[in-house]
Design brief:
1 helix; mainly beta; single chain; Jelly Rolls; 9-stranded antiparallel β-sheet; globular; 8-stranded antiparallel β-sheet
């Protein structure tokens, strides 16, 4: 019980830079364009580092800006919580893939997407695909104002996929699941360089556990 309590406390703190390991979270602070989480950054276009009230972030123009990291932190995980702190911007494309975890080879992937159905509003669209099955959570009934910071989360655990915005559950569904293999991560665009993101991203965290909403990142 003591270990569980300490772990939950660390998750709530959110800003601690844990090392990449199978037994603990992986936290990526997007505060530069050289190295994120100890990994070298491959830059596409001209994303830029900006200052925010909560720290630095990387801003993308929605046309040709992205960064790539040579690791897939979801690799080998049967259960996980994937989180991202981001701010979608006015004037962005109607469909944007802003965080993509991709194994090397094959079609397996985990995707965070925004959809902008009307001016000034967006909703979260999340997608999971493995050799065991696939699922889309298309939260078009949950519209959010644009140009504000949000924390989105995907939780996969015991045959269920759920997604949250600011700790609030929006959708869930059953999904057969097989852990992803090693690979890469694209930030600001889908891995194959379509559906660019306009806005800013500050943090990404992967936890090998199904977090409760109280332990999730907040914007």
């Amino acid at each position: 019980m003591f270990k569980i309590g300490i772990y939950a406390l660390l998750c709530l703190l959110g800003g601690i830079g844990w090392a990449h390991g199978a037994d603990g979270p992986v936290l990526w602070n997007l505060d530069n364009l050289t190295s994120i989480g100890g990994l070298p950054v491959t830059v596409v276009g001209s994303p830029r580092v900006i200052e925010t009230k909560q720290g630095k972030a990387i801003e993308f123009d929605g046309r040709d800006d992205a960064v790539y990291l040579g690791a897939n932190p979801l690799a080998g995980l049967n259960t996980f919580t994937a989180e991202v702190v981001f701010r979608p911007a006015t004037g962005g494309p109607k469909e944007q893939r802003f965080l993509h975890f991709q194994p090397d080879g094959g079609d397996d992937r985990v995707l965070f997407e925004t959809r902008l159905p009307v001016e000034g509003r967006w909703f979260l669209d999340t997608y999971l695909h493995t050799s065991a099955g696939q699922q889309t959570l298309f939260a078009d009934k949950f519209l959010h104002p644009i140009d504000e910071w949000y924390a989105a989360a995907i939780v996969v655990d015991q045959g269920k996929m759920r997604h949250y915005v600011n700790g609030q559950l929006e959708l869930s569904a059953d999904v057969p699941f097989k852990p992803l293999a090693a690979g890469q991560t694209s930030i600001g665009v889908r891995f194959n360089k379509v559906h660019w993101f306009q806005g800013a991203i500050r943090q990404i965290r992967i936890t090998p556990q199904a977090l409760e909403p109280a332990a999730m990142l907040r914007p």
